Amino acid sequence: MARCDDMREGDVYRCERCGLEIEVVEECSHDEEDADETCRAEEFVCCGEPMTLVEED
Ligand SMILES: [Zn+2]
Predict the structure, then answer these.
(1) Domain-located, residue 20
(2) Domain range holding 10?
(3) CA of 30 to the centre of ligand 1 (A)
(4) 42 alpha carbon to ligand 1 midpoint, in Å?
(5) Cα–Cα distance between 39 and 55 in angstroms, integer?
(6) Counted domains in the chain
(7) What's the rounded Cα separation, in Å, for the pair 14 and 47?
(8) Would 51 be classed as within a structural domain?
(9) Cα of 35 to ligand 1 centre, how many Å?
(10) CB 19, CB 27: distance < 8 Å
(11) CB atoms within 10 A of CB 5
(12) pLDDT value at residue 35
């Protein structure tokens, strides 16, 4: 369940169905004082399913 507000710089997310991988190069910033400007934190979906965080070791 990848939402923009918990995606961190350098994280890689993968779609288990098609193999698409995306890397976060810039984190989302939520400004509490500017509520109207904040993005709605919704799941990133590919092929109809939430993208999953790729664990690197
Ligand atoms: Zn996909």
Answers:
(1) yes
(2) 1-31
(3) 27
(4) 17
(5) 26
(6) 1
(7) 11
(8) no
(9) 31
(10) no
(11) 13
(12) 54
